[in-house]
């Protein structure tokens, strides 16, 4: 993975909300312009590819609201407490 791709993913994760689904237009408006200018080849197609990659990694979820694609960030699930405890004593 290229560092510019990782920067795209990080920028999207910073922009997306945990609480409110965001459409593509709202994501573009909310992206920090200074950080976006530093990333080479950052356009709408690259944004959609990055969104699909984050969906595959299960970091975001795509939702249809009024027949429009929207994306929302997903909370990471914790492992059960007994697995964490087992891992703690294992190492």
Q: Tell me the fraction of residues in β-strands, as a range.
A: 15-25%
| Mean pLDDT over the residues | 85
Unreliable residue stretches: none
The CATH C-level class name: Mainly Alpha
Instruction: Give the number of helices.
Output: 5
The SSE order reads HEHHHEEH
Count of domains: 1
Number of strands: 3
Any idea of the CATH topology? Answer: Arc Repressor Mutant, subunit A
Structure description:
The chain has 91 residues and is an alpha+beta fold. The chain has a single domain (3-90), classed as Orthogonal Bundle (Arc Repressor Mutant, subunit A). The protein has helices at residues 3-15, 24-30, 33-38, 44-56, 81-90, and strands at 22-23, 60-65, 68-73. Strands 1-3-2 form a three-stranded antiparallel sheet. Strand 2 (60-65) and strand 3 (68-73) form a beta hairpin. Helix 1 (3-15) crosses helix 4 (44-56). The longest helix has 13 residues, at 3-15. It is globular and about 45 Å long. The protein starts with a helix and ends with a helix. The mean pLDDT is 85.
Helix-strand layout with pairing:
Elements: H1 3-15, E1 22-23, H2 24-30, H3 33-38, H4 44-56, E2 60-65, E3 68-73, H5 81-90
């Amino acid at each position: 993975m290229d560092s510019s791709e990782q920067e795209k993913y990080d920028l999207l994760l910073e922009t997306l909300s945990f609480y409110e689904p965001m459409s593509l237009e709202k994501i573009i408006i909310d992206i920090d312009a200074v950080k976006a200018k530093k990333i080479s080849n950052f356009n709408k197609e690259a944004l959609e590819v990055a969104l699909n990659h984050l969906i595959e990694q299960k970091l975001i979820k795509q939702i249809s609201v009024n027949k429009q694609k929207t994306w929302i960030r997903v909370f990471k699930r914790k492992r059960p407490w007994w697995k964490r405890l087992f891992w703690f004593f294992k190492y």
